[in-house]
Amino acid sequence: MFEGVAGHARVTEMLIREARRPANSYLFVGASSIGKATVATEFARVLLCPDSDDHAEDCRSCRRVWSGNHPDLIEVGLEGRQSLGVEQARNIVQTATMIPVESEIKVFLVPEAGMLTEQAANVLLKTLEEPTSSTIFLLVAESEMDLPSTVGSRCRTIHMGRVPSDLIERHLLGLGVDETRAAALALVSGGRPGVAIGLITDTEIDAFRKNWLNLPTRLSERPGEAAMLATEVEGWVAPLASRAVSDVDLTKDERQREERRTAAALMESGLEILATWYADAAAIQYGAPLRNMDLPLADLTAISPKRAVRNSELILEAIADINANLRRHLLLTNLFTQLASG
User: Fold this and answer.
1) N or C: which end of the chain has fewer CB within 10 A?
2) DSSP string computed for 108-159
């Protein structure tokens, strides 16, 4: 079960137990590109499998889930809209009253549940409160706060965290990626398997990491130069994010939204890589092991351990601000100016 999922062993083990007596509604939450929708889809497959996934070879039901044409798995997408509205909610309510076609249950999968309007959520509310015994809802969102509390409180919430780099690397090796590239992708992904998989064929991964690690030697206290550097950094991220979702079948609006999410994830990953430079600068002066073995030691020892720790903290604060959707260019400009000041 769940063997195609990268990491999340705690969650998948729990869901295997849940499949024996599932709740009527689940809400999968966590950062973008960490595998929430993948895990939810796999859970749907297990729920719909007549053998509870206890078979040596994939059964017809499992194959139909993977191919996207199982009649009792209803995926509710945006379909080119900016949000999930009342009309779609009413269709869900109506379909939920119908008996399953092949299985004992129907599963509704909503990968963009965070896009539900308040009016649509109100339409769904009674169905979530009093579901039929043959209906299970799987909602996916980045945060519980993305949904009206009336909806979230009716669901069993599954919190999913980022995946350790070694598990992402192992997953990529299983997909046939060579060891050196798998390690680089795992590092750049920042714990997000979806980002790593989307960038498997990208040739700029090594340059992305090196650019971030070269930043400390290029910083300036002058706001104008810091602003130019911020623009350059954004130029590293945007094309990479676009290429990461280029092979995914999405509408124009869905692609733009996914590119924004991937860009935010890559920006966070890049800042985390930058933070490792300062962590290494402190570590080398205390005799601790380094994370980046390819850095010039003279650069690392040119900064005091106290300042290195301070700069690491500034970067972590900036990551939190990026996640709060503050203005990215201004944030980076301010960060780079602060990092350069003694």
Assistant:
1) C
2) EEETTGGGB-HHHHHHHHHHHHS--TTEEEEEEES-GGGS-HHHHTTSEEEE
Q: How far apart are CA 39 and CA 34, in angstroms?
A: 10
Q: What is the assigned CATH class of domain 9-159?
A: alpha beta
Both tokens assigned to 157: 């919430």
The residue ranges of every structural domain in the chain are: 9-159, 202-340
List own/partner pairs for 74-77 with CB under 8 A and 24 or more apart. Answer: 74/106, 74/107, 74/108, 74/109, 75/109, 75/110, 75/111, 76/108, 76/109, 76/110, 77/111, 77/112, 77/254
This prediction has a pTM of 0.83
Cα separation, 3 vs 17, whole angstroms? 16
Taking CA atoms, 271 is separated from 222, 297, 335, in Å, by: 20, 21, 10
322 and 267 Cβ atoms separated by less than 8 Å: yes
For 26, the enclosing helix (H) or strand (E) is strand 25-29
The answer to whether residues 34 and 160 touch, using CB atoms and an 8 Å cutoff, is: yes
Phi, psi of 270 (to 5 degrees): -65, -45
Q: pLDDT, tens digit, for every residue of 90-137?
A: 988 899 889 999 899 999 999 988 888 888 888 888 888 888 888 999
Nearest alpha-carbon partner for 107 in 139, 81, 72: 72
